[in-house]
Amino acid sequence: MVMKRLFLVFPFLCGIFFLFGCTSLPALSVQPESPEVLLVNVTPLDATMFEQRLQVDLRVRNPNDFDLEVTGLDFTLHLNDQRLARGLTNKASTIPRLGDAVISVETTTSTLDVIRQLLQLSQRQEVSYQVDGILYAQGAKLPFKNKGVLLDTNEISGSSPGS
């Protein structure tokens, strides 16, 4: 008789312990939303005949209602639809909840690619960029992609495209 009651109570107790265990792990059930990543600045550093070092500053906006503990960043930067550089960093930083922070990454590109970009600047009306990659945060890989216009020569010269 005692054995029969034990068989009836045991599944019930297991279910209760399982539910208590699930409620104590809320962080595992929350998947962070991908951040918005904007290009802030590109600063030339030292250069050699074959290689150009750049510092790329990216503004990372956190749309989540909790801080993002960033453990790494892997991105590719395109200017005028041509790849300029790829950046990697494993520097840890914290992006505040519903806030933003600038992450600076030193990267290397080909000097020939930089010269090619400079030569094309005189032929184009605008300088556009695209930055895409993965932000590593709290055990998650958060992909991002953003594009925009850095410089519109029509706005600087005061001319319109139709004139």
Description:
The chain is an alpha+beta fold. Helix content is 26%, strand content 50%. The chain has helices at 2-23, 26-29, 111-121, 153-157, and strands at 36-47, 51-61, 68-79, 82-89, 93-95, 100-110, 126-137, 140-152. The strands form 2 sheets. Strands 3, 4, 5, 7 and 8 form a 5-stranded antiparallel sheet that branches. It has a 3-stranded antiparallel sheet with strand order 1-2-6. A hairpin with a 3-residue loop joins strand 1 and strand 2. The N and C termini lie far apart (97 Å).
User: How many extended strands?
Assistant: 8
Shape: elongated
Number of helices: 4
**Average pLDDT:** 81
Distance between the termini: 97 Å
- Please give the share of residues in helix: 25-40%
Query: What string gives the helices and strands in order?
Result: HHEEEEEEHEEH
Q: pLDDT under 50 segments (min length 5)?
A: 24-28
How big is the Rg? 25 Å
**Structural category:** alpha+beta
SSE map:
Elements: H1 2-23, H2 26-29, E1 36-47, E2 51-61, E3 68-79, E4 82-89, E5 93-95, E6 100-110, H3 111-121, E7 126-137, E8 140-152, H4 153-157
Antiparallel strand pairs: 1-2, 2-6, 3-4, 3-5, 3-7, 7-8
Features:
163 residues; alpha+beta; 5-stranded antiparallel sheet; 4 helices; 8 strands; elongated
